[in-house]
Amino acid sequence: MLTKLVQDMLDGDRHSLAKLFTLLETDNDNFLELMSLLHQHTGKAYCIGVTGSPGVGKSTLIDSLLQMIRKQGLKAGVIAVDPSSPFTGGAVLGDRIRMSHHVLDDGVFIRSLASRGAQGGLSRVTGAGVNLLDAYGADIVLVESVGVGQTELDVMNIVDTVVVVMVPEGGDSVQISKAGLIEIADIFVVNKSDRPGAERLAGVIGSEMNLNDETSWWKPSIHLTQANNNQGINHLWQSILDHRRVSEETFNLESRRSKRRILEFSTAVQYFIDSKLRNPDFQDQGFESILSSVEKGDLDPYSAVKKFLSGSNS
């Protein structure tokens, strides 16, 4: 069944794509098999991460970028990582309503994923979702992260270009250096730039970049936009294309993707172990005995891990 679902998705069936996204979030048993089936069909899409504090207009900005992408005849996918409901674990915000221009567009697939408390502002299956849209045939994949904070910077690990969005009155100028945004941003956007303080915030960002200029191959650009009326979007899109071109020419794109593959491997290993530990029937390598020793205090948790991984029961 899984193989047929994947094949139907590869043939362009949107319903199969939606079902596979649901499996990513709910079916732990088939996760590794699904990702293995998808892998040979990935590697073609270019992935753009859009991150920033809640309320800065990320969804509206993505909606405007989608219009640019579609005008060029490119196929796009969007993953909007929403905060989770504390009761159901489901997505709360439903960012798709703010991308209304593309609801009926067959060339755009938009999916909201619940963060489910994941650190880094991203759902734990976001990277897998990017691969799924890549295999589906999306030329561009946009990932909207749930927010920015000191632990919410993981978007840089799954995308090719990171766009950090701010607004003049959001107090972000104080947070720029604190949150590590200079380190992760390839492009800065000051959105809602018709509001007072936009030029000043752009100046603060520029000053911070000059103090932290450690990258020789790319200097992040700064754009003033009004996403709700498409102002500044042309220049932003051109900057994204420029970053892609320079990344490819300097081989930094391949370097970033190589690190991503290693991270995918580590994530898959962790996922496999987690799923095993959640299985009530799991008794491999004397796991129950080790767990009992930890529970009684006879064995410390860290020695228990070493014992479990080494397969030693004594």
Give a brief description.
By secondary structure, the protein is α/β, with parallel strands linked by helices.
Task: Give the low-confidence spans.
Answer: 84-95
| Name of the CATH homologous superfamily of the largest domain | P-loop containing nucleotide triphosphate hydrolases
Biggest sheet strand line-up: 3-2-4-1-5-6-7
**What count of helical segments does DSSP give?**
12
Instruction: Write down the overall mean pLDDT.
Output: 83
Radius of gyration, in Å, reads 21 Å
Helix content: 40-55%
- As an assembly, this protein is single chain
What is the CATH class name of the largest domain? Alpha Beta
State the major sheet.
7 strands, parallel
How many structural units, i.e. domains?
2
Task: Return the CATH topology of the largest domain.
Answer: Rossmann fold
**Which CATH architecture of the largest domain?**
3-Layer(aba) Sandwich
Shape: globular
Kindly report how far apart the N and C termini lie: 42 Å
Task: Write a structural description.
This protein has 314 residues and is of the alpha/beta class. The chain has two domains: 43-262, P-loop containing nucleotide triphosphate hydrolases (Rossmann fold, 3-Layer(aba) Sandwich), CATH 3.40.50.300; 268-310, no CATH class. 46% of the residues lie in helices and 13% in strands. The chain contains twelve helices and seven strands. A seven-stranded parallel sheet has the order 3-2-4-1-5-6-7, sandwiched between helices. The radius of gyration is 21 Å and the shape is globular. The two termini are 42 Å apart. The model is unreliable at 84-95 (pLDDT under 50).
